[in-house]
Design brief:
Elements: E1 7-10, E2 20-24, E3 29-35, H1 39-42, E4 52-58, E5 72-78, H2 81-91, E6 97-103, H3 110-127, E7 131-132, H4 145-161, E8 177-178, H5 195-208, E9 217-222, H6 224-232, E10 236-240, E11 252-257, E12 263-276, E13 281-286, E14 291-298, E15 311-313, H7 315-320, H8 324-328
Parallel strand pairs: 5-7, 9-11
Antiparallel strand pairs: 1-2, 2-3, 3-6, 4-5, 4-6, 8-12, 9-15, 10-13, 11-12, 12-13, 12-14
Helix pairs in contact: 3-4
């Protein structure tokens, strides 16, 4: 269990969205965060004339649907951090805020901040909760055993401050839901490409899942590219909002392919659910490869609306449905 600590937050302007200082009691380090649009008003402060590290943070570079909810960050260091931040203010457009770490007693040196920069880049690369804008991944600088122990202690304090500054990209994602094995497992029935066998498999499948009436399946819409590049290729699904009451219930994820297919074509068993980005969305990892539904659940003439966002249903209802109208009954 982490040690308890007391954090002091100072807001010099009185604006909780403006410049904020973070200090932990009985610690010589100091963290601060400020919005980009406030830089011109605060850049002459003494804190920015010191040696330290900084993290630029924002959502301005996300052009791909694969990571549009992940923030972009840049991790840097400098002997006079004002000069570095001013340069980025002119030349880097993506960032909306900047986190800075300095020492109150000037105990940091170039080797220390170079190691901190290295360690933070390594952590961001490992957690994969951001788009790292750094072009070069530095090698670990050499520190004496005592220096490394001291700077590792400082890094742990910085990690404690990050959540209070709204920075979660260095945290290792922890599953918010882990799907346990269930007694009835429809995936023990191998799929058959032949229609005559597929119909029989479907009938047996339905018999086996009649006991599964609770909403344990989420259906998501997907365009062809994301269906192929993410759902099939990566064996997971990104960027889905799930109500807190459903997190521990989801056991399957099915995909509704949009135009021109307009049908639920595949389903996969969910292994675990983890946070994705900082926007209250999740990524669902599959325990097995997705399986194709035969026949698929089509839009049908009775269904006036296609699936435009996640909807919940039961695996039994999904497998017995002929078209979307069968699923939409009592689903939300």
């Amino acid at each position: 269990m982490p040690d308890a600590f007391t954090l002091q937050v100072f807001v010099p302007s009185g604006d909780p969205e403006g410049l904020r200082f973070f200090e932990i009691m009985n610690w010589t380090g100091k963290g601060l965060i400020f919005p980009r649009d406030g830089w011109e008003n605060i850049k002459e402060r003494n804190e920015f004339s010191q040696i330290g590290i900084y993290i630029l943070y924002g959502y301005g570079n996300n052009q791909s649907i694969d990571n549009e909810d992940l923030p972009t960050i840049y991790i840097g260091q400098g002997d006079v951090i004002r000069n570095r931040i001013s340069s980025h203010y002119q030349n880097k457009d993506f960032w909306d805020s900047c986190f800075v770490f300095i020492s109150k007693d000037n105990s940091l040196n170039r080797a220390h901040i170079t190691w901190l920069e290295y360690a933070l880049i390594q952590r961001a690369t490992k957690t994969k909760r951001s788009i790292l804008s750094n072009k070069v991944e530095p090698n670990e600088p050499h520190l004496s055993e005592s220096d490394k122990a001291g700077i590792e202690s400082i890094l742990r304090k910085i990690y404690q401050i990050f959540p209070f500054a709204g920075i979660r990209v260095f945290e290792t994602p922890k599953p918010v839901s882990q799907v346990k094995d269930i007694e009835i497992n429809p995936y023990t029935i191998p799929p058959s490409p032949e229609e005559i066998y597929a119909q029989e498999h479907r009938r047996v499948f339905i018999q086996k899942v009649t006991a599964l009436n609770e909403r344990d399946t989420v259906i998501v819409p997907a365009q062809r590219k994301t269906f192929e590049d993410i759902f099939l290729a990566q064996n997971r699904w990104y960027q889905i909002r799930i109500g807190g009451g459903m997190l521990n219930k989801i056991k399957y994820l099915a995909v509704y392919q949009t135009d021109p297919i307009r049908a639920i074509t595949h389903v996969a068993p969910v292994d675990r659910i983890e946070p994705y980005g900082d926007q209250g969305k999740y990524v669902l990892y599959f325990s097995e490869r997705p399986r194709e539904l035969s026949p698929p659940v089509v839009l049908g003439s009775k269904s006036k609306l296609a699936i435009q966002g996640p909807i919940y249903t039961s695996i039994g209802k999904l497998m017995s449905a002929k078209d979307l109208s069968d699923i939409r009954q009592n689903s939300n």
